Amino acid sequence: MRQIVLSSGWRLRQYDPSREFTAQIDDEEGWIPATVPGVVHQDLIAAGLLPDPFDGLNEYAAQWVGEVAWLYRCDFDAPDNSAPDETVVLCCDGLDTFATVWLNDAPVLTNDNMFVPRRAEVTRLIRRGRNRLMMLFDSALRRGRAREAEDGVLPVWNGDSSRLYVRKAQYHYGWDWGPTLLTAGPWRPVRLEFFTARIADVSCPVEVDPDLHHATVAVQVEIEAGQHTARNTGEMMRFFAGLTVQVELIDPDGAPVATAALPVEGGSSATRLHVPAPRLWWPNGYGDHPLYRLVTTLHDSNGALDRRELRIGLRRLRLVQAPLDHEPGTTFLFEVNNIPIFCGGANWIPADSFVTRITPEMYRGWCQQAAAANMVMLRVWGGGIYEDDTFYDACDELGLLVWQDFMFACGIYPAPGWFRDSVRAEAEAQVRRLRHHPCLALWCGNNEDYQIAAATGRYDPNLTPEENADRFPARLIYERLLPDICAVLDPTRPYWPGSPYGGADGSDQTFGDRHTWDVWHGRVAPYQEYVAYHGRFVSEFGMQAFPDRATIEAFAPPAERYPQSRTLDHHNKAADGPRRLAVYLSDNVRIPSDLDGYIYATQLVQAEALAMAIRSWRRRWGGPGRYATAGALVWQLNDCWPVISWSLIDYYRRAKPALYAVRRALAPIAPGLARTADSAELWVVNGTTAAADVDVELRTWTLGGDLVVLDKLRVSLLPNRTTELGQFGFDPGSALIFDARVIMNDQVVARASLWPEPLKYLTLPDPVIVLDLASDDELHIRAARPAKGVVLLAGDGVAWSDNYLDLMPGDEQVIRADGLGERPLSVRWLGME
């Protein structure tokens, strides 16, 4: 098969419904250059016709773009060497969203789903020489509102309610962390394919035996014949009989493992490839992530017609829901290669409002930051997009498990026949595209739709989806349509109806997954109470913080660079976001008035909150029969624009201090501390698969740096569980700091500290911090007195091995700082004047 990618020669103009269509096409005035793949906003910005909506308050000035229709035009030359028996297909891998496409003035396809790739056979329409491709994109907002006016308004959280009727990225309508920017355009590649026969699909589910000694790859290849190959069934069968499929599995070192030559029967071929002693794919932190290559080649008597290559991983994955020994309910844990995995990680949203700007290098960079933070899982949230192949490739390579939502979020979606048909096409296309990735751990029906249904009195778990369809119609999608598709197309991977899902309202702490928003949302509970809001798997929780000052300077003019300015409030999309942020500041720290101080204070609160949550819940990883909490996914890893949000890494990939706090809380070996009325509780999590003999030191300090008590313990840590080390008494009337260190082979491998709270009541003496540069990329840091929240700052381009530190006397820490060189270095800590 040959293909031509139509990536150049595109132009764009606004469609005028008052003018005759062909007149607008032929009029050479008014067109601007267009980028494909791309969306309208990008090209308007590049042409100087739209101010950057990320700057200041410019989002308001961009709303008209989503309210009108747009024309795309591409004049291109077709190859003059096509064979007479070749079929030509126009492939539009993604059209956003309501589109009609013409080739040489003939309509060839229409689209109303952003997530469905479209194919149109155009053999008789293609001309030798010059051809013209036209696309008209109607306003998704207008079309959605027309559907809503006909069928009724349904409840939503976030965005215009008409979004429920449109199969488009829902965050485009605005969210509590993102702007309202309703895009349009060919957002995925546009191609021409030339073939007599092609490989239409390759299915390759992997099964690893329970003893892990043998793996099987069940390969199913679907073949599509061109339009000129046969005029009837008999001719078609004879054509297929002349084809063969060569299948080869190649190991990570490039050596062939198994091969097969297969006949094509009725348009398909199938075989089972056997792999003795498979090299297993492991999640991040548990082992290597080797990838095999599955190469499929279609032949006729003259040679190769088409080729498809997939990278796959051999691993055994299960979602285990089993009774617990000490609590009611069941586990919700992922087991990979027979090892239960505590899935610490984060939620992933689209990394840009205009996703066609995201490069493969950018995807990989975010994933590398997640992996370096000891994350095991990323959840692709259901209000965005099914991500680009390069995102899943990076997760495969780095060992990051992916919880994959289908694209439904925070609404009561309709489910008439036409809508279910569109969802079926979407789901089938995306499951076929992604199912070979070893990173993919779970298909999930939606984000928070059961929760909004319960909140509006529409969900009755005692009724079947059919019985509940009048109030909660999309249950037919989440509990019938999607699981059926997954069972047929991806039978080895688990499906889960929604997130959260469990109990009558999705907040059950004994079953399924839970979104813990009692902190921040809900009753705005103190983050110190995270310990009470556990669940079997906490798939969302978070705390807001300001981004780096350089990020704020990128969108806020100088006069607006102060806390609570109009521009900064606009770039906090959460309902009551600035007010809720102020509550957590007021409860915990002294509120600064300057921008740098405010940034630091919000980032400190975020880091403390997330570390407390993860340590509290990971403590419940108690071993076989006691895996009471099996996952904690921070909301959210990233941003889609420069914004004040819950992200750990901002739009420009600048890490907030919380990323380092999360990294330490998810470390393979991590101590934890909690305060009771008159004692400190101490535990250590061993997240590795091997037992470890360690020394644990618990030191008690005054604020001025006097050592009050030193406790030393020799401890055997059992693998893959928490070891409780007991309670240590103290005078509750004293302001004391507890400092735990885990030591292996005379090296400190993990630290944790517990400070008196609230921190705002502490008057801290100068800690006398000393920095020594051992080399251009290594520094040693120490303090004479306890120092809280020490942040090292050196601008962009420095990769810190650790940051946001708590320093104790006599405990020098060594920090790698790749890229530091001779950059100016500054330090900030809690209480710094």
From TrEMBL:
<dbReference type="GO" id="GO:0005975">
    <property type="term" value="P:carbohydrate metabolic process"/>
</dbReference>
<keyword id="KW-0326">Glycosidase</keyword>
<dbReference type="Pfam" id="PF00703">
    <property type="entry name" value="Glyco_hydro_2"/>
</dbReference>
<feature type="domain" description="Mannosidase Ig/CBM-like">
    <location>
        <begin position="679"/>
        <end position="761"/>
    </location>
</feature>
<dbReference type="InterPro" id="IPR013783">
    <property type="entry name" value="Ig-like_fold"/>
</dbReference>
<dbReference type="GO" id="GO:0004567">
    <property type="term" value="F:beta-mannosidase activity"/>
</dbReference>
<feature type="domain" description="Glycoside hydrolase family 2 immunoglobulin-like beta-sandwich">
    <location>
        <begin position="198"/>
        <end position="315"/>
    </location>
</feature>
<dbReference type="InterPro" id="IPR036156">
    <property type="entry name" value="Beta-gal/glucu_dom_sf"/>
</dbReference>
<keyword id="KW-0378">Hydrolase</keyword>
<dbReference type="InterPro" id="IPR006102">
    <property type="entry name" value="Ig-like_GH2"/>
</dbReference>
<protein>
    <recommendedName>
        <fullName>Beta-mannosidase B</fullName>
        <ecNumber>3.2.1.25</ecNumber>
    </recommendedName>
</protein>
<dbReference type="Pfam" id="PF17786">
    <property type="entry name" value="Mannosidase_ig"/>
</dbReference>
<dbReference type="Pfam" id="PF22666">
    <property type="entry name" value="Glyco_hydro_2_N2"/>
</dbReference>
<dbReference type="InterPro" id="IPR054593">
    <property type="entry name" value="Beta-mannosidase-like_N2"/>
</dbReference>
<dbReference type="InterPro" id="IPR050887">
    <property type="entry name" value="Beta-mannosidase_GH2"/>
</dbReference>
<comment type="pathway">
    <text>Glycan metabolism; N-glycan degradation.</text>
</comment>
<feature type="domain" description="Beta-mannosidase-like galactose-binding">
    <location>
        <begin position="23"/>
        <end position="188"/>
    </location>
</feature>
<dbReference type="GO" id="GO:0006516">
    <property type="term" value="P:glycoprotein catabolic process"/>
</dbReference>
<comment type="similarity">
    <text>Belongs to the glycosyl hydrolase 2 family. Beta-mannosidase B subfamily.</text>
</comment>
<dbReference type="InterPro" id="IPR041447">
    <property type="entry name" value="Mannosidase_ig"/>
</dbReference>
<dbReference type="InterPro" id="IPR017853">
    <property type="entry name" value="GH"/>
</dbReference>
<dbReference type="InterPro" id="IPR008979">
    <property type="entry name" value="Galactose-bd-like_sf"/>
</dbReference>
<dbReference type="GO" id="GO:0005576">
    <property type="term" value="C:extracellular region"/>
</dbReference>
